[in-house]
Amino acid sequence: MLKIGQLAHHAGLTVRTLHHYDSIALLRPSVRSDAGYRLYSRDDVARLQQIQALRQLGMPLADIGTFLAQPGSPALAIVERQLAALDRQLSEAARMRAQLQQLHAQLSRGEEPAMADWLSTLEQMKMYEHYFSKEELARIPLYHDDAVQAEWRELVAHVAQLMQRDIPPDHPDARETGLQWMNMLDRDTGGNPSVLARLNIMHDREPALQAKSGITPAMKGYIAAAMGEIKLAIYAKYLQPDELEKMRHHQQTRSHEWPSLIESVSQQMAADPAAATPEAKILAGRWMELFHDMVGNRPDTIPRFRNAVESEPLLRIGRGMNDAMLAWLRSALHRG
Predict the structure, then answer these.
(1) Which of 18, 56, 191, 242 is most exposed, with minimal Cβ within 10 Å?
(2) Sign of torsion, CA 99 102 107 112?
(3) What b/e sequence results for 114-136 when a residue is b if at least 16 CB atoms lie within 10 Å of its CB, and e otherwise?
(4) C-alpha distance across the termini of the chain, in Å
(5) What is the largest CA-CA distance in the chain?
(6) Distance, CA of 181 to CA of 126 (rounded, Å)
(7) Residue 41 in contact with residue 48, Cβ under 8 Å?
(8) Model's pTM, two decimal places?
(9) CA-closest candidate to residue 188, choices 228, 132, 229
């Protein structure tokens, strides 16, 4: 049996995190000593390994308990997922090795590699790694999958054509393309709001990536408007015209504030699962202010907005905030 401090040390977690896992019935110790100490068995440690593996694989904390409760052998499935992630990492390492071998061969022949060769290597090594861990990169097809990258190049070229033809974002062709963009982005980020937020931040901050991908700020704004029109058409079944106009105005003026807020919330959740710190309350206040800028303050609007999100799967694609984040933010708001 391990005491909670010993398990926290071996797992690289805080005791507070293990307390939180206990409080939400995700990982409860098998035994309590006569003195009240939590004692963890081999099975408890195995479950913690599965929990941490699923977190590394991008599964929201709120979904992990349900996954582990399903029949069959979740442990086997989790190890298989980890092996697949490692295989992707090895594939990426092999691709980087091939690129470095090419540079090595040129240098060995006394040739001077072109600037583009050096820049390509540098960009591949550092740009994504500045925003994502190696484990996350292994789960982002945009980074390592040639077929996915080709699919995105084709879609970006199509959006460029729509823009050149002055097709407005609310046109059916633009909406259809926006829907394809939404689905591919959700697929290639695993629906992880933190990964999606950091991709947005990276595109905003890295001109070299904009040039390489062809996704300019203008194109990003265009496709965001097209996706916004798709969602506004769905919200129209639940909201009044003036409420829709408020949402449209928010999309045009303040939607760019969401990615940095979402990423800040994600980081704070990892450091403070119980939402007990002043920083959590500050972030919750920022979220509330931005949310009300989007939907207003009328008591009857918010329930209809939430009903729309709960009832319409398409509204949850690329939403940014998942249920675990929202629960954490509400907990922070109601503390003290």
Answers:
(1) 242
(2) negative
(3) eeeeeeebeebeebbeebbeeeb
(4) 37
(5) 75
(6) 26
(7) no
(8) 0.60
(9) 132
Residue with tokens 């203008």: 218
Q: Which residue has tokens 């699923």?
A: 54
> Which among 310, 184, 185 has a CA at the least distance from the CA of 235?
310
Q: Report CA torsion sign: 265, 266, 270, 274.
A: positive
What tokens were used for 44?
Answer: 């408890």
Backbone angles phi, psi at 165, to 5 degrees: -85, 5
3-class DSSP string for 23-73 = HCCCCCCCEECCCCCEEECHHHHHHHHHHHHHHHCCCCHHHHHHHHHCCCC
* Amino acid making up residue 222: Y
| Distance from C-alpha of 236 to C-alpha of 233, rounded to nearest angstrom | 5
Structure tokens given for 111: 């040739």
The tens place of each residue's pLDDT in the chain, 336 residues long, gives 888 888 888 888 888 889 988 888 889 998 888 788 889 998 888 888 888 888 776 677 777 888 788 776 567 777 777 777 667 666 666 666 776 777 777 778 887 766 556 555 555 556 677 778 777 877 788 777 778 888 999 999 999 999 999 999 999 999 999 999 999 998 888 888 888 888 888 888 777 677 778 888 899 989 999 999 999 999 999 999 999 999 999 988 888 888 888 888 888 888 888 888 888 888 899 999 999 999 999 999 999 999 999 999 999 887 777 888 889 999 998 875
